[in-house]
Amino acid sequence: MKKFLQIVICFFLLVSVSATANSQFSKPEFAIKYRQSVMFLMSQHFGRMAAMLNEKSSDNKEAFEDNALLVQTLSRLPWQAFRVPGTDKGHTSLKSSAFQQQDKFNEFARTLENQITDLVSKAKSGDFNAIKTQFGEVAKSCKACHSQFRNR
Ligand code: ASC
């Protein structure tokens, strides 16, 4: 009987641990804060790349690539936090339609990831015009999602 009880307790512990791992956020506000933090970092590193492109200096090649790599990593982080139920309420500009149009939302997310990956390879090539054009494509993919799913 004691053994049985131990097994039952182990089972419930495992279930509760995996439930936490699945939801990732202990409160909806943390999901909002998490994705806003990632977006803030992305905008900072994106802005640094824009400034470098305006300076047109080839000294910036490595720094540009570093920033592109950071944005590539960051671009993989926020999506799960956008799927937490209830996080279209509160301190957020997320439109509720993002929940109703998950496929569209995911498509925007994948497009950004692909466009930034392409920017990383262009950055490695050092071809200024190709980098500038691809930077514009990344910016377009940010804007496309924001105008669909972000409240002004
Ligand atoms: C940013 C930021 C956005 C996007 C967008 C790109 O840095 O805050 O909303 O880039 O301007 O087009």
Weakly predicted, low-confidence segments: none
Largest sheet entry = none
The count of helical stretches stands at: 6
Bound molecules: ascorbic acid
Query: How much strand?
Result: under 5%
The Cα radius of gyration reads: 20 Å
Write the layout of secondary structure elements.
Layout: H1 2-23, H2 28-55, H3 61-74, H4 97-100, H5 102-125, H6 128-149
Bound molecules: ascorbic acid.
The site of ascorbic acid has 7 residues, from α2 and α6.
Structure report:
This protein is mainly alpha-helical. 75% of the residues lie in helices and 0% in strands. The chain has six helices and no strands. The chain has helices spanning 2-23, 28-55, 61-74, 97-100, 102-125, 128-149. The relative contact order is 0.11. The protein binds ascorbic acid. The site of ascorbic acid has 7 residues, from helix 2 and helix 6.
Quick gist of this model?
This protein has helices at 2-23, 28-55, 61-74, 97-100, 102-125, 128-149.
Structural features:
152 residues; binds ascorbic acid; mainly alpha
